[in-house]
Amino acid sequence: MTILYEVHDNLYVNMTNRCPCACTFCLRQTRDEMNNSGSLWLEREPTVDEVKAEFKRFDMDKYGEVVFCGFGEPTERLDDVLEVCRFIKDTYGKTVRINTNGLSDLIHGCDTAPRFEGLIDVVSISLNTPSKERYLELTRSKFGIESFDAMLRFAKNVKRYVKKVVLSTVATTLTEEEEKECAKICAEVGAEYRIRPWED
Ligand code: SF4
């Protein structure tokens, strides 16, 4: 099963297929892999030791960043992800990014942001839209209408513990006015706003 895979100059980590959302745009609905990774559907969740062992199969000097992003929400396994982050920092000293839906606090029922300190450098969160109602329509989060505000609260909190927080939307999916609203939200949160290219 594919635990690590390359995307451009970075190495991606796929540790879970669990996710509290069922986004209408989720790429898992239409494909099994990314960038010729091999299937990102896991037969079972790999143990932390198995994930660490996988890194030895790759030439780590080749990669700029290690990115936690696969066919699922990485913070579903927050303890295990952070243990792997510690290993990456101690062994390779690499920049670590996590691509997340930002619902970690709802998944774990507590403020998870402080735990990211010293282990994760960049937190990239899918903002999707400036509207909480539209966010729920798009993500179909099992946590319901409180999801959008919880995601923004997490973004604001985690900014105190990591170098950079990025909130992103997808090009062509929002009006210019909505993108301006997203930029305003990002400024309030203290996050960078990124409009990422559409991927089908
Ligand atoms: S949060 Fe990510 S993995 Fe989960 S359903 Fe949405 S796009 Fe897919």
Q: In whole angstroms, how far apart are the ends?
A: 24 Å
Mean pLDDT: 96
CATH topology: TIM Barrel
Q: Uncertain runs with pLDDT below 50, 5 residues or more?
A: none
Structural class: alpha/beta
Approximate shape: globular
Number of strands: 7
Query: For this structure, what is the CATH class?
Result: Alpha Beta
- What is the chain-wise order of helices and strands? EEHEHEHEHHEHE
Characterise this structure.
This protein has 200 residues and is an alpha/beta fold. It has one domain (4-196): Alpha-Beta Barrel (TIM Barrel), CATH 3.20.20. Helix content is 31%, strand content 18%. The protein contains six helices and seven strands. It has a seven-stranded mixed beta sheet with strand order 1-2-3-4-5-6-7. A hairpin with a 2-residue loop joins strand 1 and strand 2 (10-13). The two termini are 24 Å apart. Bound molecules: iron/sulfur cluster. The site of iron/sulfur cluster has 10 residues, from loops.
SSE map:
Blueprint lengths: L3 E4 L2 E4 L34 H8 L9 E4 L9 H15 L2 E6 L3 H5 L13 E5 L5 H8 L7 H12 L5 E7 L5 H14 L2 E5 L4
Q: Which key features would you list for this structure?
A:
200 residues; alpha/beta; TIM Barrel; seven-stranded mixed β-sheet; globular; binds iron/sulfur cluster
